[in-house]
Amino acid sequence: MITQKDQTGLHTVVHKAEFCVIGGGLSGMAAAIAAARRGVFVVLMHDRPVLGGNASSEIRMWIRGAEGENVRETGILEEIALENIYRNPDMNFSIWDSVLFEKVKLERNITLLLNCSCCDCQMDGDRIVSVTGWQTTTQTWHRVEADYFSDCSGDSILAPLTNAQWRMGRESREEFGEDIAPNVSDEYTMGLSCLIQARQTNHPVTYRPPRWAYRYTKEDFPYRINFSTPQKWTNDNFWWMEIGGTKNAIKDAEEIRDELIRIAYGVWDFIKNSGEVEADCWDLDWMGFLPGKRESRRYVGDYILNQNDIRSRGEFDDIIAYGGWTMDDHDPRGFETRERPNIWHPAPSPYGIPYRCVYSANVENLFFAGRNISATHVANASARVMGTCALLGQAVGTAVSLAVWYGCTPREVGRFHIRELQQALMEDDCYLPGKKRQPDAVMEGALLTVSRQGLPQGDAAILLDGVERMVDGMDHAWEGEMGDSVVITLPQIRHVSVVRLVMDSDLNRTSWGDQKWYIKKFPTRCNLFLDDQPVHIPDSIVREYEIWTDGGDGQWQLAVRESNNYQRLNKVTLEKDVKRIKWIPRKMWSGSRARLYSLELLGGHWKEKE
Length: 610
Known about the structure:
Helices cover about 20% and strands about 30% of the residues. By secondary structure, the protein is of the alpha+beta class. It starts with a strand and ends in an 8-residue tail after the last strand.
């Protein structure tokens, strides 16, 4: 890092990195973390004071993703969700912000620049050399020189700065043969929303709206507020308070925000004072002044994902992530029309997304992840949700680690190293539909056996079948009692760097009983009820376990004793020459039986830089 001072007295800090990520939403966070953990030096530039983007306390949108049983997104996103459960059982948004903050700050290979807005870029031909951002809090310019860049900003700020190819608006039905696209292309997008959060109290609460708030009647809310019972509105996060799709989501953002605030305070006035809903003891706990965006610029990659790809399950050879949300196409007029605010066009869950959609077709060292990937408007209506975006970010960060390792372009990673990329993603607990995890080379010829109270109980080969969740009705987990042991016996003594374990984190959160539906699905709350109950670590996660090793002399030695595990993926550093390894579950969080999807040894071909 180098600090320079210009004639005006303003400072410029120059950072030299291998990878620069613009945007600290979930996709940018996942990209930065994934790359950093695989030894890449990263600078993450984000224009807000908190991380998380649409999921942060500033916007508070639910982290939606693939719909259905056993398709919850794992990898870094599930790691964050479980950290939040452990640290933040009441799902307080201030603590949630700190969970996201520490996930980035604790990575030693990441330099985090908050309150820093990317506003300039230097090119050398079709390569990005550096980007420059202005940090409002320090009145400092930050220039980041890097080998690879990823635009995870949502609005694709690097597109106009680099002349990367991009699109905005809706394609015609004819261009990609999409039968749910409009007949004629236009510049319309899905709109923006400023959300509100309500809190139930034990006493009546008065609400007096500002004079400039809109006034509404029951007729203004068709398809939006459910009037079947007075309480139906309470399970709503008010996503339908949406406008801006007929304007420019970037250029007109301030004007749109002002209108959204008038709408939101007017909606709350209707809820509190119209007599149509039961809300006497409800208070407006929070009002979002930063709009959440659904769509703006989308990059053009080597492939453009479209409706037909999604409908056919996206069975791409170069799959690196998956979606499963409906093609949830919002009317560009949003709250300005009394027609349905959106149409949930069916989509299979899961469907694959190819690697060719996350790097630029014409800027050699530019990746992107999030709602700005290479997709049509219709396909983006599904792929834009944050659970999917986090998977895409992790895929990009992992791809960058390969690009750095091999000294190649993003395109060359796809041409020559796609199998290695897919295996690396699955090693880090990312599910790729249709693909199986191949055991590390150190496991060649290994035998997995189970014993109970010292007596053989058979093999545990299912732990190496390469599938680490229930798929198509088949459960791929080993299940055993406390004190049972799973033993890996190698054909000869080998050096083992890491023991990799994948627990069952209860992807459907069935162990949470009668918790509200959205608590089971998303890591953050909506409205706050008096009877809200804290969440707990899923019953199926093993809290305490031991790892024993045999160096070849037949004697077992205790190598690791874990007493407070709450994560699904465990990568336990070993760095030992061993013949056998034994894993023993000792205590659960709440459940009685251990459930394990993978027990594997890694030989250490990926090592962090010193």
